[in-house]
């Protein structure tokens, strides 16, 4: 992408890191927009990776994580191929199985009901896609 060569992902990550620690819910749309752009430019891990690295600090990163999981659910619902082609850089695991493994940590540690809800929605979508793939194989 030309945008990638111009450093746009770095600018988006900078904005994500700036806004992730603000507790103002007015930034929800901005966070969702930044995360959606990251997904479109670099795939699922371009958003999930930075979200997983946010340090727990009260409610602030929780809002950013909830926004990210909401965006991934909405984009994955509209374009399942985004989740089907996801690849975890550390493990090499691919597809919705990789996404499910990554977000299970979000679900397990979510004290926030909003974060938990979005994690569970995305997990359900991943499980649906895994089930579809299994039926195609048989």
Structural write-up:
With 138 residues, the chain is mainly α. It is built from eight helices and no strands. It has helices at residues 2-5, 8-19, 28-42, 44-53, 60-78, 81-84, 95-109, 113-137. Helix 2 (8-19) runs antiparallel to helix 3. The model has no long low-confidence stretch (mean pLDDT 85). The longest helix is centred in the last third of the chain and has 25 residues, at 113-137.
Strand content: under 5%
What's the overall average pLDDT, rounded? 85
Low-confidence stretches: none
Helix content bin:
over 70%
- C-alpha geometry: globular
The tally of strands reads 0
What series of H and E elements makes up the topology? HHHHHHHH
User: DSSP helix count?
Assistant: 8
Précis, in short:
The chain has 138 residues and is an all-alpha fold. Helix content is 75%, strand content 0%. It starts with a helix and ends with a helix.
């Amino acid at each position: 992408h030309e945008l990638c060569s111009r450093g746009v992902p770095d600018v988006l990550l900078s904005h994500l890191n700036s806004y992730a620690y603000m507790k103002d819910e007015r930034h929800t749309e901005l966070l969702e927009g930044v995360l959606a752009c990251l997904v479109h430019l670099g795939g699922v891990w371009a958003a999930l990776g930075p979200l997983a690295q946010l340090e727990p600090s009260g409610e602030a990163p929780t809002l950013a994580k909830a926004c990210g999981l909401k965006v991934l659910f909405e984009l994955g619902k509209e374009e399942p191929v985004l989740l089907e082609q996801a690849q975890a850089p550390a493990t090499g695991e691919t597809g919705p199985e990789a996404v499910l493994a990554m977000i299970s940590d979000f679900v397990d540690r979510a004290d926030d009901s909003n974060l938990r809800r979005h994690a569970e929605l995305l997990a359900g979508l991943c499980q649906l896609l895994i089930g579809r793939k299994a039926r195609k194989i048989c």
